[in-house]
Specification:
six-stranded antiparallel β-sheet; 3 helices; 37% strand; globular
């Protein structure tokens, strides 16, 4: 993977794109391997970020709840005990799981693995803390 354009080209080819802007692309990842996840999906936001006005990074993010609908201490405790990738942040009205990677010299597996982990983890958190499939 050489740059943002290469990553976006790969994403367009491999995933269901639902929004495509110059510095952000959104995809819908579907789940359904078992009875608990069948028919569920997660909207993933993949954005280009420029660190220190010189280094390209890619941020993978997805909301999984509204701030006013969950106990944030419980969410943070669960994430601290169970997840190996990503961090939880509040963005506007939403609780978001996100992870960032430097784009320079990024191999595709260094993108795919965190993307799948963030998506699957957010899906489980959404299911556990809201019982719905809103995102």
């Amino acid at each position: 993977m050489a740059d943002w354009a290469d990553l976006v080209g790969y994403i367009r080819h491999e995933y269901r794109v639902i929004l495509d802007d110059p510095d952000e692309i959104r995809i819908r990842m579907s789940f359904g391997d078992d009875a608990e996840t069948e028919g569920r999906a997660q909207v993933m936001v993949i954005a280009r970020e420029i660190f220190d006005q010189r280094e390209d990074w890619v941020q993978i993010a997805t909301p999984f709840a509204r701030v006013d609908e969950v106990d944030l201490l419980s969410v943070l405790t669960e994430v601290g005990n169970t997840l190996v990738v990503g961090g939880v942040v509040v963005m506007g009205e939403h609780v978001v799981l996100r992870h960032s990677l430097p784009l320079i010299n990024l191999d595709i597996n260094e993108f795919i693995d965190p993307l799948e982990l963030v998506a699957g983890s957010a899906e489980l958190l959404e299911q556990q803390f809201t019982g719905r499939d809103d995102y």
